[in-house]
Amino acid sequence: MLGYATVGTNNLARATAFYDDILTLLGAKRIFDFERGVYYGKDTMELGVLTPFNGDIASVGNGSMVALRAGSRTKVDEFHATSLRSGDVNQGAPGLRGDASIGFYGAYFRDLDGNKLCVFKMGPER
User: Fold this and answer.
1) pLDDT, tens only, 66-111
2) Which residues have a Cβ under 8 Å from the Cβ of 117 and sit 6 or more positions away?
3) Is the dihedral of CA 40, 46, 49, 51 positive or negative?
4) Domain containing 68 — which CATH number?
5) 58 in a domain, yes or no?
6) Residue 37 lies in a domain
7) Sign of the four-CA dihedral 88, 90, 93, 94
8) How many domains, the chain?
9) pTM for this predicted structure
10) Which of 29, 33, 78, 101 is deepest in the core (most CB within 10 A)?
């Protein structure tokens, strides 16, 4: 259903260095580069890191968030720890959320531009 998501940045070099590093943990790579940003994914564009098209300052949306699927709870833990070492702001430590039978295991952080992200694993750990 979701085609791709984007987050804004005011410092493209810093943001893409961060996403180049952290998205490899989920098996993603650069799919498409252009003057305003980079799209990452596994086979197709999934997440874009861009300067705003209208040239205004990038800002975060209250209530907006991008969720990234991880292959395991261990990957969620690793991704969250790596993001915090990079200077991101913790918005919720890794752990089960909601009804345990659903098995939603997630962690939340804000990137260096203030964009809120979640990395999660749904279902039982195998």
Assistant:
1) 999 999 999 999 999 999 999 899 999 999 998 888 899 999 999 9
2) 7, 65, 66, 67, 68, 83, 108, 109, 110, 111
3) positive
4) 3.10.180.10
5) no
6) yes
7) negative
8) 1
9) 0.84
10) 78
